Known about the structure:
158 residues, alpha+beta, five-stranded antiparallel β-sheet, 30% strand
Amino acid sequence: MSRLSHFDSCGASRMVDVSDKGVTLRQARASGLVRMQAETLRLVRDRKVAKGDVIEVARLAGIMAAKRTADLIPLTHPLPLEAVSLSFDFPNETTIAIEAEARVTARTGVEMEVLLAVSVAALTIYDMCKSADRAIVVEQVRLEEKSGGRSGHFVRQA
């Protein structure tokens, strides 16, 4: 990485000018984990958390967050998202795995949108479960894959 693109030659913050980039299909996928006590996860899976269906509320929160990325993260471009989806898995008795995917046909990518979607979904799970379990941990929010644009295709290697 030769330089940071969000700073000009004098060090001032700037929104990157993407007007000379081509409009292409851009896709990204991010993931994250939420760890909690087994008893808490059972409540989530059985839809018995007092605040409601944790997974469905987290899914909606993640989608809404992706749509608001430019309002929340300075210098990101507002994007006309064409698809955003979140999925949830339970790899063991104490973990919820979250994955977000997004697509857009635009001049810039959707990495920040999927990262924000996973983060907000994880924080929503925390918020809805905190009365039952104060030791919940949100971890490993990361970009897994992106494609489209000048930088090419990226896939995280395990």
